[in-house]
Predict the structure.
Amino acid sequence: MATETTPSLNLRTDLFINGEFVPSASGKRFATINPATGETIAEVAEAGEEDLDRAVAAARASFESGPWATMKPRQRGRILVKAADLLLARAEEFGRVETLDNGKPIFEAAKIDMPAAAECLSYFGESADKLYGDTYPGRPDAMLLTLREPVGVVGAITPWNFPLLQAMWKIAPALSLGNTVVLKPASVTPLTALLFAELLAEAGLPPGAFNVVPGPGAAVGAAMAEHPGIDKISFTGETETGKSILRAAAGTVKRVSMELGGKSPNVVFADADLDAAARGAVNAIFYGKGELCSAGSRLLVEESAHDALLEKVVERAKKLVPADPLNPKTRLGSLVSESQRDSVARYVESGKAEGAKLLAGGNRVSVGGKGAFFEATVFDGVTPGMTIAREEIFGPVLATLTFKDESDAVAIGNSTIYGLAAAVWSRDVKKALRAAKALKAGTVWINAYNLYDPGLPFGGYKQSGFGRERGHHALEEYTQVKSIWVDLT
């Protein structure tokens, strides 16, 4: 099986603070592992509270008095657009690093995730001078207006499933508006964040505007939420962690936005194009190995279409064979870690024990005798009360449920604490739109799944979080409104 090591990648693995790679104050380092082989890729500097203080101080100085503070919006935008061009030119390199760190197929990392990250960066770079205030013509004796100002130092805490792309959804809008950023990437996938710090510096970002402090979430992430020098936390991750961040942030009453877990319903009506729906259902759960907050992990099928659709889904699932993530033909890579694979396996056993019918997959596998691989798994006969229908598995496991009619589909779809995403498949436009309006989710696709654009907001209802990433809504997340009253008498 193909492997690559730190020397061939020439990675920088210290902390990135104030424009420089520096060791941690403690000297501690932790290993980041290639989950497809179990081998160590690199030893990364482990940040502690002293390092976080240094990063926040650098970000504060850059925001208050550094060149970033006085730069015109269009100048900021040009730097970000240049960085986007550099990232796109190096998509294969960044994709290879992300594949090694995360286990996802190189096709996804290099051909989809990195171009999407570059597009996001370019979008917000071009948006840097396009957020306007308002005037209010409510008084003849005064001019009333509002300004949008950057919120300050942003603490970004990002997950391991889309290490650079998810980070970009935070970094790009924050920087475009003149904020500065301290990023804590997930401990198991820190490498592309550090590589991106180099790229931003090359593009002309001044020291202190962007800082990277890898380390354990329980230590560094918690300290960020409590830190009085951080004005806003943007977090993506599991719901329970999000709740702990909210509690920690309350002490300094800092702004918080978060995108949390999901158990998204993928609703297929009998009048849908079943071939397209089957392709969509497989993409919805098996893209990214199912390690996706918005994964269509619950397939809801109208009873009369059940047999025909499931035959197509199972046939496609069985063709998704786990394989070397570095092979460009691979479409199902390694899960991010052995512990994540073990968690997925426990859910599969739970599904079988509670009476769900296993139609495909369900097994741990290895490739070349190594790796945290798991088969594409399909369950049928699932009921809403089963564990695999209620809890986020974060792996390649599809739970199939049936419904009688439109109202039943919506009721089952909404029978969850989450509300991140959903999809509806139907040739009946009115029915599809009614269902889309009734489903409680931040994103609803119609006759599609897993399609994204940097201009379209993304975020959750209910315990899937609050706040929005992407689009002009994201620009609002990283600014605060100031009202100005000019007396004309």
Q: What stands out?
A: The chain has two domains: 6-260+464-483, 265-454.
